């Protein structure tokens, strides 16, 4: 029977049949996360857009044209500081949309959420292309900022619940694979955007608008392929030979019951985890945002073999420094991505609370070590500390969905994760504000640039202490917070779940003939090859740093 498109998107039509290979789901999730992860790389557009009218040089706005004036002006170019608000909008809308529509996602299913995410993210880029063409910044704010931000939120949480249910034995690893893709999106998108802008640019056009159009079409193809690749397991499915963790004494933090998303606002453990994520991300964003200028200002000409402070360098030397700093930023991006998979996978062995304790204790020690490394002139120790810090920043994002599933159950973990992401939206404002204002304050006191980050590191370490205390206070939930059997059955009906008569145990290896090995290989190649290309381009930049 042929299904109409809306019917084909329904959750009940995504339930996997016997013999489905669960390893087809991670590449579907990666296809979406690698596309929306370009949000991290949107800064590649800021410099060309800051001279969209002047092309070779920006046409500056007069003092009478403030931020609101730049939303509608067609006579002068946008300032980079104005364009930067797009970045803030991305993550504020991501957190808000994930919180607002997380419950809908659990009932509608990952496929429908993935399709809506693709239409919003790619449609937003097309609206932004129109905004660039007409030189109307409000269209960019509406397109990529608002509509695209909603797509970000839905796309980010769309695979979480599904992956956790397919991989109850490796929750951290499964979510780590997908969220690794979000960190890797900019690694692919940024060089792709740069190449496209170079191709489309001309003496009268910086090439951003057609780049948006081409990237939107490419992303739409990949995201729809990912959305249609989603499958959900039947209720009761579990891997062959796997023992549920409730039977393992060392995993007392893992429940087999389920909490309804409507109750989480009143649960103390939710707010403790909210603070855990907020503090970790605030500190991490603070470091990522200032890593490049901090490296240049702290070590100055030593980075390029010149005995001079940063303020004493000439234009050519500053250009050489910028190349080194770009390589350093690329190196951090690799650790950000690797940390998402490595730390999340490690949490399957250590447990989530211990893993987060490592983040806070080790991270705090590394933050406090940075001023000493800088004072000693040790670039190696300085860079190593920041690389590990950034890996734990990424690891926190990848580990928290499994942490939530352990505490709150898997039935509505995607929706609960969506609400927790409001901590990310808060951290996206808190971290940069603390770092930037502290830097300006220190400079105002007359401190040299090389020393203005010392107090900042103490503050960021203090944030991690707060996070550590909150993490240590997390305890298993009281029985009153969980759904009763009748409430759970009602929620399963609303979520269109099909209950198996008995617990389903399938050995995917034994039933591999139900899924063509060529299909599995093609699915992984579809996400693996672009990711490998992105890693290759990033390594070229990293090589400049080590050179």
Q: Order of SSEs, N→C?
A: HHHHHHHHHHHEHHHHHHHHEH
Radius of gyration: 24 Å
What class would the helix/strand composition place it in? mainly alpha
Distance between the termini: 62 Å
The quaternary structure here is single chain
User: What's the CATH H-level homologous superfamily?
Assistant: MFS general substrate transporter like domains
Poorly predicted spans: 1-5, 247-251, 499-513
What is the CATH topology assignment? Growth Hormone, Chain: A
Fold and architecture overview:
This protein has helices spanning 5-9, 25-36, 46-49, 67-70, 80-83, 85-108, 110-134, 137-157, 160-166, 171-200, 208-229, 268-299, 315-350, 352-376, 379-408, 413-420, 422-444, 454-472, 485-494, 517-546, and strands at residues 238-239, 505-506. With 547 residues, the chain is mainly α. The chain contains 20 helices and two strands. The model is unreliable at 1-5, 247-251 and 499-513 (pLDDT under 50). Strands 1-2 form a two-stranded parallel ribbon. The radius of gyration is 24 Å and the shape is globular. The protein has a single domain (17-57, 67-240, 268-478, 501-546), classed as MFS general substrate transporter like domains (Growth Hormone, Chain: A), CATH 1.20.1250. Helix 6 (85-108) runs antiparallel to helix 17, helix 10 (171-200) packs across helix 20 and helix 14 runs antiparallel to helix 18 (454-472).
Detail the topology: elements first, then pairings.
Blueprint: H1 5-9, H2 25-36, H3 46-49, H4 67-70, H5 80-83, H6 85-108, H7 110-134, H8 137-157, H9 160-166, H10 171-200, H11 208-229, E1 238-239, H12 268-299, H13 315-350, H14 352-376, H15 379-408, H16 413-420, H17 422-444, H18 454-472, H19 485-494, E2 505-506, H20 517-546
Parallel strand pairs: 1-2
Helix pairs in contact: 2-10, 2-11, 2-20, 6-8, 6-16, 6-17, 7-8, 7-11, 9-10, 10-11, 10-13, 10-15, 10-20, 12-13, 12-14, 12-15, 12-17, 12-18, 13-14, 13-15, 13-20, 14-15, 14-18, 15-16
């Amino acid at each position: 029977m042929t299904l109409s498109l809306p019917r084909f998107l329904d959750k009940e039509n995504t339930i996997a049949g016997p013999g489905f290979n669960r390893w087809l789901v991670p590449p579907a999730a990666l296809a979406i996360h690698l596309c929306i992860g370009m949000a991290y790389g949107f800064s590649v557009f800021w410099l060309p857009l800051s001279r969209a009218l002047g092309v070779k040089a920006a046409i500056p706005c007069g003092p009478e044209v403030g931020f609101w004036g730049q939303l509608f002006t067609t006579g002068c170019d946008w300032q980079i500081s104005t364009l930067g608000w797009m970045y803030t909008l991305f993550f504020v809308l991501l957190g808000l949309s994930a919180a607002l529509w997380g419950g809908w996602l659990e009932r509608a299913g990952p496929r429908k959420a993935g399709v809506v995410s693709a239409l919003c993210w790619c449609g937003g880029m097309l609206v932004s292309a129109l905004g660039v063409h007409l030189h109307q910044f409000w269209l960019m704010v509406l397109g990529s900022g608002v509509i695209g931000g909603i797509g970000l939120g839905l796309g980010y949480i769309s695979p979480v619940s599904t992956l956790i249910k397919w991989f109850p034995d490796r929750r951290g690893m499964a979510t780590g694979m997908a969220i690794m893709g979000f960190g890797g999106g900019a690694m692919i998108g940024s060089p792709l955007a740069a190449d496209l802008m170079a191709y489309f640019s001309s003496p009268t056009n910086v090439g951003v608008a057609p780049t948006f159009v081409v990237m939107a079409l490419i992303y739409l193809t990949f995201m729809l392929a990912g959305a249609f690749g989603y499958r959900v397991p039947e209720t009761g499915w579990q891997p062959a030979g796997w023992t549920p963790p409730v039977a393992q004494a060392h995993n007392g933090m893992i429940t087999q019951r389920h909490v309804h998303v409507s109750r989480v606002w009143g649960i103390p453990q939710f707010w403790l985890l909210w603070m855990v994520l907020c503090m970790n991300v605030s500190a991490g964003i603070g470091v990522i945002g200032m890593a490049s200028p901090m490296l240049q200002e702290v070590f100055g000409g030593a980075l390029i073999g010149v005995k001079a402070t940063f303020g004493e360098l000439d234009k050519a030397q500053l250009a050489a420094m910028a190349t080194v700093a770009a390589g350093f930023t690329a190196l951090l991006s690799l650790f950000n991505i690797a940390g998402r998979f490595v730390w999340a996978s490690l949490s399957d062995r250590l447990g989530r609370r211990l893993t987060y304790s490592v983040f806070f204790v080790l991270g705090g020690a590394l933050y406090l070590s940075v001023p000493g490394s800088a004072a000693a002139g040790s670039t190696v120790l300085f860079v190593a500390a920041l690389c590990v810090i950034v890996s734990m920043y990424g690891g926190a994002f990848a580990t928290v969905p499994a942490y939530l599933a352990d505490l709150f159950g898997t039935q509505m973990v995607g929706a609960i994760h969506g609400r927790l992401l409001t901590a990310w939206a808060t951290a996206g404002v808190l971290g940069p504000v603390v770092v930037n204002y502290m830097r300006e304050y220190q400079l105002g006191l007359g401190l040299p640039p090389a020393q203005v980050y010392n107090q900042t590191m103490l503050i960021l370490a203090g944030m991690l202490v707060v996070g550590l205390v909150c993490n240590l206070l997390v305890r298993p939930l009281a029985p009153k917070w969980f759904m009763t059997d009748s409430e759970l059955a009602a929620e399963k009906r609303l979520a269109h779940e099909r209950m198996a008569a008995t617990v389903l145990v399938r050995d995917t290896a034994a039933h591999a003939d139900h899924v063509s090995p060529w299909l599995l290989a093609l699915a992984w190649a579809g996400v693996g090859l672009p990711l490998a290309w992105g890693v290759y381009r990033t390594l070229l930049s990293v090589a400049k740093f080590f050179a």
